[in-house]
Amino acid sequence: MHLSMRLPKVEPDSIQVPVTCPLRVGKRKRPCGGQHFKLHQIGCDKPLRDLRHCQVQAQRYYCLTCQRTFRVYPRGVSAAQQSSNLKALSVLLYVLGLSYQGVSDLLDALGQPVSKTTAYNNVQAAGARAIELRKQWLQQHGASVKVLGIDCTHVKRLGQDTILAVASAILTGEALSIELLADESAETLTQWARQLAASLQSEVLVTDDADAMKTVTDALGLDQQICRAHVNRNIHDQVARLGTKALEHPDRVPAKTELSVPQFLDDLQQLEELIKGLPHDGQQQLDLLASRYQTAPPPKAGQKASMWYRLRLLTLDWSEHWSRLTRFQSWRGPASEKLDGTNNATERIIGQYVKERYRSMRGYKRKASILNVSGLIGWLGMQPAAYDLGEVV
Questions:
Q1: What are the sequence ranges of the domains in the chain?
Q2: With contact defined as beta carbons under 8 Å apart, do 193 and 216 qualify?
Q3: What's the predicted TM-score (pTM) here?
Q4: Cα of 211 vs its chain's centroid, Å
């Protein structure tokens, strides 16, 4: 994971005149909204926890609307004890792999001790802010995401397996959504992806080859591209298992058929070549293979499926879903964009923004922490070089 961040600076002499009164008034604590002020006090001492400044000078203004005073702080300073620079540094150190205790120890060595609880609060607040920024970004740019990729991963929370769903913009590699799901059923996945796909105006959904993902795609009314990388790995494993079975302990040839073990082995090889090569006449070749094994009988109650019947199902399955595997060959975007036929963009997000930081942890304690940490790293990962961390702290 490569990040290029810029820490916000404390500028003691840079104080901007307020535009709107920040105070709340009345029993309902509604915003004052006043826009007319009078300078009330020039020099107000503000103790500060920062690597360079231990104190700055604030100004106090008088609101002519609510007739109350409020402080205005220099750039990089707020009412909090920590400066934006110190908050951002603690967040960055955690994102780069230090534990909360490690962040505390390092800042203590730099002369500005921060407890691990404070470091934790800084990271969680930054994560919540990053999630909000992503929602705003989606509202402004989401309609251009024509190809949506989704996948699921697992993390531990209090020792229990937790499912994390990730959505990406396949063409640009940006992280669009990271959400917790109760399970990986088609119904749950559809409920999560429906609103997302509608708001993004997506046309194609890129997924792995799980049956649930096919159901989700059909429910959303989208075209599907099944990840070729997933399929190639799976078909290789399936062919290897069936080939080993045929060579070592072949099942009896079904009665009243012209099938044979040598033919079976040749067909296995052809099937793998078709799935990996995706020739233009692959659909027709798969149909011929499927027709050859259509008489293979299904297993009786309590019996296992024979290798003949398993190949029958395998050829039928890919014959029916050939268009889902080859969608990338014909799809073109508004600017003639092309697909590579994989879900690598989503898997890269999972690896870099979820798993890489998670590997050094013993697990999470709160669901909110999973979303905040993953959401924060995902947001930072899609930013350009020299991104100002002050935006999230």
A1: 5-84, 86-136+383-391, 150-202+209-219+343-362, 229-325
A2: yes
A3: 0.87
A4: 21
